[in-house]
Structures are given as structure tokens and as C-alpha cells.
Amino acid sequence: MRRKAVALVAVLLVSLTSGCASLQSSATRVGGVRMTDDRSVRDGGTLTVALNSDPDKLDPSLAQTLVGRTVFAGMCEKLYDIDEDGTLVPQLAASLPTTSADGRTVTIQVRPGLKFSDGTRMDAEAVVTSLLRHRDLPGSARGTELAPVSEAEATGPLTVRLTLDHAYVPLTGVLADRAGMVMSPAALKKYGKNFTNHPSCVGPFRFVERVGGDRIVLRKDPNYYDAGKVHLDGVVYKPIPDGNVRLANLRSGDLQVGDQMAPVDVQSALTEPKLQLFNSPSLGYQGIGINVGNVKGLGQKPGKIDTPLGRDARVREAFELAIDRDLLNEVVFQGMYEPACGPISPQSAIAPGPAPEDCPRRDVDRARKLLKEAGVKTPVKIELKTSTTPEQGRVGQVLQAMVKEAGFELSLRPTEYATMLAETDGGDYDVFTSGWSGRLDPDGNVSNFLKTAGAMNAYGLGDPAIDKLIADGRSAADPDRRTRIYDELTRRVQDAHALIYLYRQKNYVVAGEDVAGIHVYGDGLVRVKNAGYTR
User: Fold this and answer.
1) How, if at all, do strands 257-258 and 46-51 pair?
2) CA 400 – CA 392 distance, rounded (Å)
3) 64 neighbors 141 (Cβ within 8 angstroms)
4) How many CB atoms lie within 10 A of CB 526?
5) Do residues 325 and 359 touch, judged by C-beta distance below 8 A?
6) Does the model's pTM come out above 0.90?
7) Neighbour count for residue 8 (Cβ, 10 Å)
8) CA 163 – CA 186 distance, rounded (Å)
9) 375: Cβ–Cβ under 8 A, 6 or more apart, which residues?
10) Helices (H) and strands (E) in the chain, counts
11) In whole numbers, what is the pLDDT of the chain averaged over residues?
């Protein structure tokens, strides 16, 4: 039933969509996995890439953001990567790992002849140093991912042996992300905690400088093993939260690539003959996180939160039932994203999650009944922290209108992204907009966030049944059994209502017509190794 609040949302829909070009009229310009083809490119020039927010720490052990991963893609390669088909392939490793029959010993061969950007040699010892740092560094966001690794040792100049405390199926996928980034031991020793301001890895470009809130500058690394395929002199990443500003700068030529473009800007870009547009499906999710037990910060034992939302799952369920996912997608994203209600994308080849049509429907009457059963005073006052992007502001406004009808008074607090991460990690929030760019293996979408004291469990969720399902999913090799495990895990997470999944983005990227060789796959990263200008 659509009442006053939804009528207000309909008004928002008219105002947000007026003046936008039709996506369908130019649909042939959208699609595929490769953003720009590999036309002949000239050597030289600098590419400026606009990000939708300022990355957090440029330290692979500590970093948490998608925009940070995009910067790392230019300067910090991993032991493994994914290709355009979503297949795991070797990158700094010489081949895919070999695993013992019991699944507890994994051997990795490292490419020969590799050098870090500081000129020092990368070998098996360097890999071990990075893996142990990722696992053990206080505050590491990789700790949960690498917890099953009980020992790591170099058994030869280019051979690494990992001993696991149990079979760990997602390991190769984990090593295809930040946990697989290898850092220069010399730089780690020299800079210590300040490594974030002097990152040194193996990659097509090396770090030059960072001016907070303004730019991150990389230059072509002559030490890179594949330097002959790198055409650009350098890459500059600029955080520009406002999509309208990003688009205006793309039109003027001040920017060459706009990452994570919002649907309203994408529709406008479709009418521009001098711009290229690409989309790829996302393996991630976007939603809202609720503080149900984060009283001491990440990695700590959950405690009691003395708020209606924190105390009672019925209040959280009522909050979710007040939300219309389909209408949110229609109003804010012009129908160009997809509703979501679980951590795993239905497009995942491994244990696919619930389809959009299976998500709970809006039920205001049921929401009001739950609040009455919980005995809470209405309206229930809640503060929602969002990032400062216009798109997230619109999400907050639409949610505010929807939940009001059910008995919630939602106030909005736009917060600079890095600040919001720090505050929510520390438990200083009621509700916040929470998202994840997604991983190929389902474990990468659940363990860090949903495991008790997980490395990115900002919600303070602690459920032994969920912990057991995460452990079972990590050790089960049979695909059908993994699917059953993650189906049950998704149901339990939905029942907890600590992380309410709302929609899945598509990875929309806009580039100038004279840019070629950029690749964007399902992980959403803009890969610039082969990028360049056609004239």
C-alpha cells in the first residue's frame, strides 16, 4: 500500500528523473566486460581518473575501500588476479597454487626476476613477510581472511609453503585481493606504521605523492617486470564526490576517466559523442549497517547497545519492512541497479544468492505491529550516517520518507567518507550506509563482516551459528554443499537484521573517446596497466 511517505517518494522520482536522457535509446553503447578496446595507443601522457571519494590508507593490510583498491590496481599487484571471465589467474605467482590431498598444505611458486618500486628484489621471503603482516598486524583488515594460515615459510628462493589449520577453499581468491599484495620488506622496515605514506609494491606504476582530499600521483615504474606494455607516463587519481562535477570535468577534458558514475550521470553521458560508457555487473552489495554490539571497536567482543535498534531484532525487522527496495532503486538509481537482500550476488558462479524477486516486500502494517510488540515509544529516533556524495544523500532522503510511515524518525548526518569509516569502526553510530564491492568467492563477502569479531564487523554482530556456517563454507569443497551452507547463512543473517542489504550497483565508468586499453571486470576495479591515448 502506498501512503503519504511513498507519495512523497513518487514526487522525488519525478524531480530526480526529469531531464535525463533515455538509457534504452543508447543501450548499444553499454555492455560487455572490457571498457575500452586495445586499439593502438601511443606512449606517453598522464591519465587522470576521478574517484567518488578519497581512499583510506594506502596500506594493503589496513585498507578497506573500493576506491583504495582502484589505486592499488595501478601500483600493487597480487599473487593472483581475476580475468575478464572472472577466472582466477596468476599475477605475481608463477602458477596457480598446489594443494595437498588433505587441503592443509599450499605451495606457491613466485615469478622470477621481480623488483619492488624501491628497486629491491621480490622473492619468497618477501611474500612470507607480507602474508604474516597481513595476518598479524594490529588493526589489519586482512586478519580474518588469513586466520586459517598457521605457518608461512620460504622453502626456496621462489617457493612459499603455507600450512593451514584446516582446509581453506577460498584461499586463492583471498590472495587475488589485498591479502595477496606483496610489500617491500625494506620499505616496511624503514617506514613502519608510516608505510601508508610511502607504499612500495610491484606494479606498473610507483607511488609519488598524496595530497589528502586532492590527488594521488603515480609514475611509470622502470623496475616493473612488464614495463614494455605500460604506455602512460603516469596516473593521477582525484577524489571528486559530486558526479555532476566529475561529468563536467570529463566533458572539458580535465579528466579522462570517471569511476563509479551514478546512473543519473550515466544517462546524461549517453548523449555525449566524445565519451565512452561501460558497465559490468557487481559481485558486491550496498545496504545499511545497524550497531547491534559494537561497543569497543573492530575485532572486540560484542557488547550491549542500549538503543531500541540495538536491543531488539523486532525493531530492526520493522525498520527493514518499512523499506521498498524496488522503489528505492527506481527513485534514486533510475532502475539501473538491482534490489538485493543477501551478501552473495545471484550472478555469482559459486553459491549464488537470492534473486531480487525473492527479497522481502514492504509491509508497513507488519512493521507497526512489531514496534508495538517490542513496546517501544514511537517515533523511534535514529541517526543515519551517509557519505557526502549526492547519490548517498538521495538514498538517505528516500529512506527517511519511507520509514517515517512505519513509526521511525530518521535524521541524516552526511559525513566525509574516511571519517565515517573511522567512526563506524569505533562503534560511534546508530545506522550507516554500508557497502562492499564484492569478491569472487562468497567467503569474501561474509567472513570479515559477519563473523564474531571479524576484521570489518563494524556492526558488533556475534552469532555462533553464523560463525559455524562461515567455517563450514570455508572448508567445504563440494559446490552443492557450499550453496546449501550459504543459503542457510544468508537466512540467518537476514533474521538478525544487523546488515540490511538493499541493492547491487553496476560498475559504470565513463572515459574520453581518445582513451583505450582500460579494463574493468566484475570486481569493479579500473585497471590502467595497458591504458593510453589513441592520438
Assistant:
1) parallel
2) 12
3) yes
4) 28
5) yes
6) no
7) 17
8) 25
9) none
10) 17, 23
11) 90
Beta-bridge partner residues of 341: none
DSSP-assigned letter for residue 220:
E
257-261, 263-267, 285-289, 395-399, range with the lowest pLDDT: 263-267
Please tell me the distance from the alpha carbon of residue 502 to that of residue 121, in angstroms, as a whole number.
Answer: 45
Residue 484: exposure state from Cβ atoms within 10 A (0-12, 13-18, ≥19): middle
Let me know: does 105 contact 95? Beta carbons within 8 Å: no
User: How many other β-carbons are positioned within 10 Å of the β-carbon of residue 306?
Assistant: 8
Contact 532, 231 (CB under 8 A): yes
Distance CA 466, CA 492 (A): 7
Q: Are strands 46-51 and 234-239 parallel, antiparallel or unpaired?
A: parallel
Is residue 278's pLDDT more than 90? no
**Residue partners of 215: CB distance under 8 A and separation at least 6:** 209, 236, 237, 238
pLDDT value of position 37: 57
Q: Please list, in sequence order, all residues whose beta carbon lies within 8 angstroms of the beta carbon of residue 193, skipping any fewer than 6 positions away.
A: none
Helices (H), 258-389: 263-269, 308-311, 313-321, 325-333, 364-374
Contacts of 7 (CB under 8 A, 6+ apart): none
3-state secondary structure of 116: coil
How much of the chain exceeds pLDDT 70, in percent?
93
Question: By the 8 A CB rule, do 4 and 489 touch?
Answer: no
DSSP bridge pairs for 239: 51
Query: Which tens digit of pLDDT belongs to each residue from 158-196?
Result: 999 999 999 999 999 999 999 999 999 999 999 998 999
Q: What is the distance, to the nearest Å, from the Cα of residue 85 to the centroid of all Cα atoms in its chain?
A: 19
Contact 210, 49 (CB under 8 A): no
CA dist 239 → 51, 67, 143 (Å):
5, 9, 28
Altogether, the residues listed in the chain come to a count of: 535
Helix (H, G, I), strand (E, B) or coil at 316: helix
Q: Are strands 526-527 and 519-520 parallel, antiparallel or unpaired?
A: antiparallel
CB 221 within 8 A of CB 95: no
